[in-house]
Request: fold
Amino acid sequence: MSKLPHIGTSIFTVMSKMAIDYKAINLAQGFPNFPVDERLTGIVSGIATENVHQYAPMSGNTALLDKIKQLTFSSYSRNVNPTTEILVTAGATEGIFATIQALVYRNEEVIILDPSYDCYETPIILCNAKPIRIALKDDFTPDWETIGNAINHTTKLIIINNPHNPSGRVWTEYDYNQLEKLLDSYPNLLVLSDEVYEHITFEQKHLSIHHRPKLWDRSISVSSFGKTFHITGWKIGYLIAPEPLMNEIKKVHQFLVFSVNSIAQTALAEYLNVVDVPALSSFYQQKRDYFRALIKDTKFTLLPCEGTYFQTVSYNNISTENDIDFTKRLVTDYGVATIPISAFNFNGKDTNCIRFCFAKDDATLESAAEKLMKL
Reply:
């Protein structure tokens, strides 16, 4: 008897396997294919012979916690206590899982805004709680009237994702104002703010939960060094939350992973002394602009990309196929792997949109564009 009978192989695994099987260019799964900063790999090589191979402290390497505190202040002018309000996690996914397991109880409800990343629902179900799926508008912005109508006194948590995967949209001041109004109306409501692409935004700069002091006591933010520094395989992220909430999250974290990779934490603490985090936006904006220019003369309709390293497009001018069939045909007939947006919707809603990952070297993007021009 399965606790998760509806869970099968993820679309990311399916499309990546198809890319391998058909020798296609993989613009599906969200991992970069260009080299990691040589300064970071040099730091890892240098510390590998040092005494950094045993358990790190449960909450995180002390030096790294202090660097996260400094990064949060330089990015958002928010002071956080590194001892009581920060937790280094085994990737953002573990942080999300530990948060939901710690704070959500049986029969409580959790709001998920679709399309959404696929790791939110499972920990809710394992709590014997109820995920409530609310569709974003067609332009991937929040529908605050529908959200407000769905929330009641059994709603424990709303999960927000900004910048948004898969669409690349970012929140505005209006969105945060509406969120604050909801929390004013429901004093037990908490916010889980998934901000793993926080340092990858473009013309409209990232607005964070950290910019909203009114929300701090009731919010948990999720960040990802893996996404920020294109080291996704390191699986290292962190949470920021007020001490009463963090104390509960740490109880789950302690028995889930206890502590996170010691070499990675030591290396990142040193790397944060030399890396220019704000410059990452310009790096990825160049990638976005180059990819958009490469495919602008295809039959795809480019949708707004304000953040993340994903470009969403409509293929309404190309085919009437559902998006799963269309993405599979892209692999088999044209040699490019992408992700169908319906896979991010609980009800499989299909708007004939797909997602490309442009966190690739220029040669890969050029080869993919050449193939896509043949559609």
